[in-house]
Amino acid sequence: MRRFLRRFLTAALSTALAAPAVGVAPAGATAPPDPVIFVHGRNAGPGVWGGMRDRFTGAGYPADRLFAWSYDTSRSTNEVLAGRFSAYVAEVLERTGAARVDVVAHSLGSLPSRWYLAFGGGAEKVAHWVSLAGPNHGTGVAYLCVLWDQGCKDMTPNSYVLTRLNSGDETPGPTRYATWWSPCDEQITPASSTELSGAANTRTAGCLKHDDLLGDEGVAQQVRAFLTGPST
Predict the structure, then answer these.
(1) Alpha carbon of 105 to those of 19, 21, 36, 229: distances in Å?
(2) Distance CA 70, CA 29 (A)
(3) Which of 104, 32, 34 is nearest to 68 (CA)?
(4) Among 161, 133, 141, which Cα is nearest to 48's?
(5) Is the dihedral of CA 9, 10, 11, 12 positive or negative?
(6) How many other CB atoms sit within 10 Å of the CB of residue 225?
(7) 3-state secondary structure labels for all residues of 49-85
(8) Residue 229: its pLDDT value, please?
(9) Edge-to-edge strand ranges of the sheet holding 176-181
(10) Which end of the chain is more exposed for a tag (fewer CB within 10 A), N or C?
(11) Which 8-state DSSP code applies to residue 20?
């Protein structure tokens, strides 16, 4: 009986020592990437990101790390949307347990997410920020809808929102910034308005229209490479 108990205890101890500790990643395990929050542009919705999300997951990005924020594009960037975006970021961080997120914004979506980084404490919670065809210095096309749409007012050159965002450091905090713009963009005029001082600014290789940047394979690959690159 003693011999049996000795063998049993020895085997149990060996099994316990061989088992990985709970909550400790095995040696060589790769941590999941920061969650990505996609932010659509004016008069759009989260569905516009279907193509890019498919390209991300097809390249091995975990589907449960990809999110898309939905919002009313006619509301004020600074008074309404930036605060709601801040709450959404907090929700994603709580859900995933991550310390920071990455943000990929298209067109108007660049403004509330930039305001959050600049004035809402977001620079400490966003590792990478991407603007695809964003009206970061305004677009003349926005004058066509300023009479009934606050989002359009925010996009006009020298608007209150853009004046504040572009006063001083255009890329504040430890966040890494990048922009992509196309010379054939018919919605952002001038197209180079998207560029920001201090960001990695990329002119697209092809002649892409405004919405083409959402699903272009080359742009998706470059954005993915930027997000998975070094962060501060």
Answers:
(1) 43, 40, 10, 18
(2) 34
(3) 104
(4) 133
(5) positive
(6) 10
(7) HHHHHHHHHHCCCCHHHEEEECCCCCCCHHHHHHHHH
(8) 82
(9) 66-69, 36-39, 101-106, 126-132, 176-181, 200-203
(10) N
(11) P
User: Is the pLDDT at 17 greater than 90, yes or no?
Assistant: no
Q: Which amino acid is at 4?
A: F
Half-sphere exposure of 211 (CA within 13 A, CB side): 11
Q: What are phi and psi of 128, to 5 degrees?
A: -130, 140
Residue 83 predicted with pLDDT over 90: yes
Q: Would you state the structure tokens that stand for residue 181, as one six-digit string?
A: 């713009």
Question: Alpha helices, DSSP H only, in the chain?
Answer: 2-18, 50-58, 82-96, 110-119, 150-155, 160-165, 217-227
- Whether residue 160 contacts residue 174, with contact meaning beta carbons closer than 8 Å, is answered with no
**HSE (side-chain half, CA atoms, 13 Å) at 194:** 32
* Cα–Cα distance for residue pair 25/79, rounded to 1 Å: 43
